[in-house]
Amino acid sequence: MSSSQENTGTTEGTTDEGAVVEAGAEDQPVAAAGAAKERTDELVREGEIAADFLEGLLDIADLSGDLEVDIENDRAAVAIVDSEDGVAPGRLVGPGGQVLDALQELTRLAVQAETGERSRLMLDVAGYRADRRAALVTTARRAVAEVQESGQPKELEPMTAFERKVVHDEVLAAGLSSESAGVEPARHVVVLPR
pLDDT at residue 44 above 70? Predict the structure, then answer.
């Protein structure tokens, strides 16, 4: 580059017809769209691997349930739902969702074994996580109202990482902040005043 030329972060090329084409920032949306499509394809693959694993597990255990695969919040999401043959097995949820958490970890490991990459896949059975999310949003909103009224921090009951994330997101959306405190299994959210 000569001293009279300016570095603008663009490159030039020519088409087959000889026209000069400048490539720069305007190409970034195309690259971003390509990366987004690639990420979506990875998540779809994760979901498919998880569904295959879970289908095999349901067959071995002779349990009913259909599988739904989706993408939510940049994660593969798989749900075991009621099928024509029967209802989704609630025993796969267990007390407080403990069996569901363990099954989710096993499913993530199955995906990782196939892809070589760590998975953040979310698993739901019989709508348990969706129902729990709705209850947590209500709890978070009540805590926010209490903190706004009293001006004092509010400690919530112990929660899993998934549950704490739901509460943190709801508190942030309400314009307050929160933090996690304690050690597992008593780790909990503290909603803070402004």
Answer: yes
Cis bond leading into 185, ω under 30°? yes
> What is the reported pTM?
0.72
CB 54 within 8 A of CB 67: yes
Q: Which residues 6+ apart lie within 8 Å of 187 measured at CB?
A: 158, 159, 161, 164, 180, 181
Please, which residues have CB within 8 angstroms of residue 3's CB and are 6 or more apart in sequence?
Answer: none
191 pairs with which residues across the strands?
Answer: 154, 178
Chain centre distance of CA 116? 19
Q: Does 20 score more than 90 pLDDT?
A: no
CATH assignment of 29-126, given 2.40.50.100, 3.30.70.2860, 3.30.300.20, 3.40.50.300?
3.30.300.20
Task: Identify each DSSP E strand in 60-138 by its residue range.
Answer: 66-72, 75-81, 122-125
The predicted structure's pLDDT at residue 26: 55
Question: According to CATH, where is 3.30.300.20 located in the chain?
Answer: 29-126
Sheet holding 188-192, edge to edge: 154-158, 188-192, 177-181
Q: What is the DSSP letter of 89?
A: -
Tell me the per-residue pLDDT of 69-79, one tens digit each, with 9 for 90 and over: 999 888 999 99
